[in-house]
Design brief:
Elements (H helix, E strand, L loop, with lengths): L8 E3 L6 E2 L10 E3 L4 E2 L8 H9 L4 E2 L23 H51 L10 H5 L5 E7 L6 E7 L14 H18 L13 E4 L2 E4 L7 H9 L5 H9 L4 H5 L11 H24 L15
Helix pairs in contact: 5-6
Length: 319
C-alpha cells in the first residue's frame, strides 16, 4: 500500500469500517466507502477528488452509511430510521430538557394551586367567624346562662306617677309574668331604668359591630332577615346599612367603605354594586340580588306613603 500522501484510490469492502470517515489523502481521486457502519459527518473532500468527481460521479460512493449530513451531500442512508450518535445525543438531550421543564412547571403550578387553596380557606374561616360575631348577641360574664333563660323570670319595676292636681307622687309596680314577685322591690325610677337600659344598649352595640338598636319612628318597623329595622330603607342610618350589609355577605372591606363613605340608607340604595369588591362572583350576585330586592321594597313603601320615588337607581354591568 502506498503512503497516505500518495494514495489515489480508496476502495473499502462492506462493514470493514465503523465510526467516522478516516483522514483522506490530498491526492485521492477515487473513494468508495459504501455500505459500512460509518457515522458522524462527511468531511470536506480533497480538491483532486472533487475534480475527479466532476468528470466522473462514480469516483465516489458513500451510500449505505449513517451520516449526519447525508441529505445535504446527496448520500443515501443505510435505512430511513438511521440516526447518527450525535443526532441521537441531541434528541436525548432535548427530551431530557423537556422532561425537566415539565417537572419544574408541574412543581411550580402545584405550589401556586396550594397557595391559592390555603388563602381561600383562610379567608373563608375568617369570614365565617366574623359573621358569627355579628349574628350572635354579646354576652358578658354577668349574662344569664341558657338554663337560667329557660326558667320563668320575674322583673318588678317601680315607676313614679305624678298627680298634676296635688303635685304628689305615687308609685305603681309592674310585675312580669312567669313566677312569684321578687321579694326586694326595685328602688329605681323609670328614668333610672331607662338610663340603665341605654347604657347596656350602647355597650352591646359597641361590642356587636357598633350596631345600635333602631328607635321606632311612629311604629314603622319591619324585619329584614334577622334584623328589625325601620320599615323604609331610604331612612336608614349608616349603622342600619352596615348591619343589613353584614348579614348579606358584605366583606369587612365593604363595611369599612360604608363607614368611611358615610353611606346612609338613601345613599346606599343609589350605590353601584360594581363599586364594591367581592371574593367570588357568587358573593357579588347574591349581594346584588339582595340590594335590588331592598330597592323594590323601598319603592313600594314610598308609593304607599305617597312620597316621591327616588330619581332612579344606577345601572349595573352584567356579570
Amino acid at each position: 500500500m502506498k503512503a497516505a500522501g500518495q494514495l489515489r484510490s480508496f476502495n473499502v469492502g462492506v462493514n470493514l469500517f465503523q465510526n467516522g470517515i478516516p483522514d483522506l489523502p490530498t491526492v485521492l481521486t477515487y473513494l468508495n466507502l459504501s455500505r459500512n457502519r460509518l457515522t458522524g459527518s462527511i468531511p470536506i473532500l480533497p480538491d483532486k477528488l472533487l475534480t475527479s468527481i466532476k468528470s466522473d460521479p462514480t469516483h465516489i460512493d458513500l451510500n449505505g452509511n449513517c451520516f449526519d449530513n447525508a441529505k445535504s451531500n446527496s448520500v443515501l442512508q443505510v435505512n430511513n430510521s438511521c440516526t447518527s450518535p450525535s443526532s441521537t445525543s441531541k434528541e436525548a438531550d432535548t427530551a431530557s430538557g423537556n422532561n425537566i421543564g415539565v417537572i419544574i412547571g408541574g412543581v411550580i403550578g402545584g405550589l401556586l394551586v396550594l397557595a391559592l387553596l390555603s388563602y381561600g380557606a383562610f379567608r373563608l374561616v375568617n369570614a365565617k367567624r366574623y359573621y358569627q360575631k355579628l349574628s350572635l348577641p354579646f354576652r358578658t360574664s354577668d349574662s344569664p346562662s341558657n338554663q337560667q333563660l329557660d326558667q320563668p323570670q320575674t322583673i318588678e319595676l317601680t315607676v313614679p306617677i305624678v298627680n298634676s292636681d296635688t303635685s304628689s307622687s305615687s308609685y305603681r309596680t309592674f310585675v312580669s309574668e312567669g313566677g312569684d314577685t321578687v321579694p326586694e322591690k326595685a328602688r329605681g325610677t323609670l328614668f333610672d331604668a331607662m338610663n340603665s337600659m341605654s347604657v347596656n344598649m350602647v355597650q352591646t352595640s359597641t361590642m356587636n359591630y357598633k350596631f345600635v338598636e333602631p328607635v321606632e319612628e311612629n311604629g314603622q318597623m319591619d324585619w329584614f332577615g334577622e334584623l328589625r329595622l325601620p320599615a323604609l330603607p331610604s331612612k336608614w342610618s349608616i349603622q342600619h346599612v352596615k348591619a343589613w350589609a353584614a348579614i348579606n355577605e358584605a366583606t369587612p372591606t365593604i363595611l369599612d367603605l360604608i363607614e368611611r363613605g358615610q353611606l346612609d340608607g338613601r345613599t346606599f340604595l343609589m350605590t353601584r354594586v360594581d363599586d364594591f369588591t367581592f371574593p367570588t362572583m357568587g358573593h357579588m350576585v347574591r349581594f346584588r340580588t339582595a340590594l335590588e330586592n331592598l330597592r323594590s321594597i323601598n319603592e313600594q313603601r314610598l308609593r304607599l306613603l305617597n312620597e316621591p320615588a327616588p330619581p332612579g337607581y344606577p345601572g349595573e354591568s352584567s356579570s
